[in-house]
Amino acid sequence: MAMFHSLPSIHVKHQKNTAELESVIMPVPAEVTISMSQHIGAPCKPVVKVGDTVKVGQLIGDSEAAVSAPIHSSVSGKVKAIEQIFNARGAKSEAIVITTDGEQTIDETLTPPAIGAELEDVLVAARACGLMGLGGAGFPTSVKLAGLKSAAIDTLVINGAECEPYLTCDYRIMLEKTDLLLEGAELILRHMPGGRAVIGIENNKPKAIEKIKADAAAKGSKLEVLELKSRYPQGAEKVIVYEATGRVIPEGKLPSDVGVLVMNVGTVIKLAEYVKTGLPLTSRMVTVDGGAVAEPKNVWVPIGTKLEDIINFCGGYKGDPAEIILGGPMMGTCVADLSQPVLKNTNAVMAFSKKWAHLPKQTNCIHCGRCTNACPLGLSAKEIVQAYQDGNVDLLKELNADLCMSCGTCSFVCPAKRPLAPSIALAKIMMKNGGKK
């Protein structure tokens, strides 16, 4: 494979404390709250009503919109309420509250999908599964796979980098469900004549690299393993596409525009699992860690489980937590309400003590340029932040502020400890609102 110059990146402490802890299944909670907004695109509408009895895998929310994915019950029990909730980012959405019966009775109508030689069979299966990107953005998988109708896509890049500190759920699922990973890759490759599939994994995960290589060789799989440097943010879509292919995704374009399909490792595995079992996406693995958690774990939880129930399953706290984050510490979202439910793309719950959550004192910018030099996209963070503070939307557009992927690298390297990434996020909102802060 040709070698390319790497994009700018930084070293962060890995803190992979749960890497060698096998995943465990959490007992069914007394109640779940399943949001109808769990993906990019149109939210779903409930197709059940208060008082209905539901089973695991039963359809409870759907939409006729082109960009959407159905939602299924993660538990068996009774619909207690249909209400409005606020997510961790403050957006309001409809949600179905289900009181569980503890039986986890599976919907008897579920059957494995019929997968023939046509791509359409895979697209129908991906949608029926309720599948979406499990690594972050939450783009509906059926819509993404529809890009294979274009002969221009020749490379499948499976994202197994997991470059955020603390997170290990992708690492564990690669080790624990390697067969399904290979089957999922082959399923997609069938519809990419002459194409290739490559999985990018950081080299701080040697067991996963070795196991996937060995199993792929034993099964005759075409999946290639690309060892990535343990640098942040290797798992960012534009970065991993460049590392795997040398192709640059132009401004405002998607991976498909350069002939690449990018999928998270968990998404590929769940697609293969659904094809074999017919059980839609109703649970996921979550890394629970952060220093303030008594018993860090990798936990399989039903979608809609409250954060409080997950943390209690992990022994509660050791000391008072100062900050709870959904996701990793670089790109995660702080939450103030532990009744927040797990969504399909929730990969971690982090609890940090005051020592680790304390923000350092901010000083004046010294114009060192480290933020620009470290940005994988070459954006000038300090200029963007100044334009935001000045309310200069035209300059924000010139500086391509909307291209920021909120990786947090600029804030991490800033010697003045300025909150650059949060300010750029606010700048993007201001651009969207026509100049209003």
Entry summary:
The mean pLDDT is 93. The protein has helices at 119-128, 141-145, 169-176, 178-189, 206-219, 237-245, 265-277, 307-313, 354-357, 370-374, 381-390, 393-398, 409-413, 420-432; strands spanning 24-25, 31-35, 45-46, 53-54, 59-62, 71-72, 77-86, 92-100, 155-159, 196-202, 224-228, 260-264, 283-289, 297-302, 321-326, 333-335, 348-353.
Shape, per Cα inertia axes = globular
Topology, number of strands? 17
Gyration radius over CA: 21 Å
End-to-end separation in angstroms reads 47 Å
Largest sheet entry: 6 strands, mixed
Report the sheet-strand fraction. Answer: 15-25%
* Number of alpha- plus pi-helical segments: 14
What share of residues is helical? 25-40%
Instruction: List low-confidence stretches.
Output: none
Strand pairing plus helix content: what structural class? alpha/beta
Across the major sheet, the strand order is: 1-14-13-17-15-16
Average pLDDT metric? 93
Task: Report on this structure.
- Helices cover 28% and strands 20% of the residues.
- It has 437 residues and is α/β, with parallel strands linked by helices.
- Strands 1-14-13-17-15-16 form a 6-stranded mixed sheet, with helices on both faces. Strands 2-8-7-4 form a 4-stranded antiparallel sheet, with no helix packed on it. A 4-stranded parallel sheet has the order 11-10-9-12, with helices on both faces.
- α11 (381-390) crosses α14 (420-432).
Draw up the topology in text:
Blueprint: E1 24-25, E2 31-35, E3 45-46, E4 53-54, E5 59-62, E6 71-72, E7 77-86, E8 92-100, H1 119-128, H2 141-145, E9 155-159, H3 169-176, H4 178-189, E10 196-202, H5 206-219, E11 224-228, H6 237-245, E12 260-264, H7 265-277, E13 283-289, E14 297-302, H8 307-313, E15 321-326, E16 333-335, E17 348-353, H9 354-357, H10 370-374, H11 381-390, H12 393-398, H13 409-413, H14 420-432
Helix pairs in contact: 3-5, 4-7, 11-14
